[in-house]
Task: structure prediction
Amino acid sequence: MITRIDVCSFDTALDDLTDILHACVQDGASIGFILPFSSDQARSYWQDRVRPNVQTGSLDLFVFRENERIVGTVQLIPATMPNQPHRADVAKLLVHPSARRRGLGRVLMAALQDRAIQLGRTLLVLDTRSTDPSRILYQSLGFQIAGEIPDYCRNPLEDRLEPTTYMYKNLS
Result:
């Protein structure tokens, strides 16, 4: 079941969110973090970077629950600049490694897109490491490749740089 987390329910979701982020990074996901990566670092990300934005309403946090446990999450971040009222960023699509290959990413992205449309956003933008399987998922959801930047991010498991792909989807 997909729900949007508000600040009141954030604290009860924190342990599951921490577990998902930690597990995904340990599994090699390139989502801004590299190994070694502790559970405390994962918890700090959610508390320090996400919670304040959920509280102010500048970020929509979606979760997928299975048997009362959160096993997937994604963030919608509407652009705030006056010349971009039509745009939003997609961030941190995470599915716990134990729950992958069951379509949860698709379901989360559908909820995110519905919310974007509800907010009057007609353009979604994201970036993903060019070699990540998520790129194939995004393309299957109708995202187009805008371009690739070489040596954009460090590989989470090895000391080498990798390219990232910028993608977009028109919702209108």
Notes: The longest strand covers residues 144-154. The radius of gyration is 15 Å.
